[in-house]
Design a protein that fits this description.
It is a single chain. The chain is 66% helix and 7% strand. By secondary structure, it is mainly α.
């Protein structure tokens, strides 16, 4: 039986392409690791988790956000953001309010305590990235944005395919590895 085309592995890369891909992955891992390290250090200093710091800074920067908007901006699942919001609400950092424009929508809003804390927390990783990005000329920034948008779309497609395959496996009797 032949696997559907969307489940076939990509063709092997040339040695040169593999080298390029390896260096790009190393750069992405480095950026991710450094960002998380900087955020964790700041969070620990303030008695928070990294995701709580990110949520505080998002709310500080964008103002009131629905849980769905916050989860999209943080690239996290709604259930994850709900847990973060619950803990932040318990600690008096945020409050949930109804949207005046659409009463069905619940917004997350910083409390005075949350705002003071958000203002006291430097966005080290974001500041580092912003400084580095400002050093690029406009054309390079535009090209980087285009490539990152394309890469993000392709990663989202791959994640969806993986989740679809795992869902099909789970439906077929468990989450086991299938022979290749």
């Amino acid at each position: 039986m032949t696997a559907p085309a969307d489940e076939l592995p990509p063709p092997p890369a040339s040695t040169e392409a593999k080298g390029d891909i390896d260096r790009i992955i190393e750069a992405i891992v480095y950026l991710y690791t450094e960002s998380r390290r900087a955020t964790k250090e700041v969070a620990r200093h303030h008695g928070l988790t990294g995701p709580q710091v990110t949520a505080l800074k998002m709310l500080e920067g964008f103002g009131d956000l629905s849980l769905s908007d916050l989860s999209a901006r943080m690239s996290a699942k709604n259930s994850t953001i709900t847990g973060i919001a619950d803990r932040m609400e318990r600690d008096g950092l945020v409050e949930r309010t109804r949207s005046e424009a659409d009463r069905r929508v619940v917004l997350m809003r910083l409390t005075a305590k949350g705002r003071r804390l958000a203002e006291a927390i430097p966005v080290t990783s974001m500041e580092i990235f912003a400084t580095a990005l400002r050093s690029l000329d406009e054309g390079d920034r535009r090209e980087l944005r285009r490539i990152l948008r394309l890469l993000s779309d392709r990663v989202a497609d791959e994640v969806q395919r993986m989740e679809d395959r795992l869902g099909r496996r789970a439906e077929a009797g468990g989450d086991r590895h299938e022979p290749r």
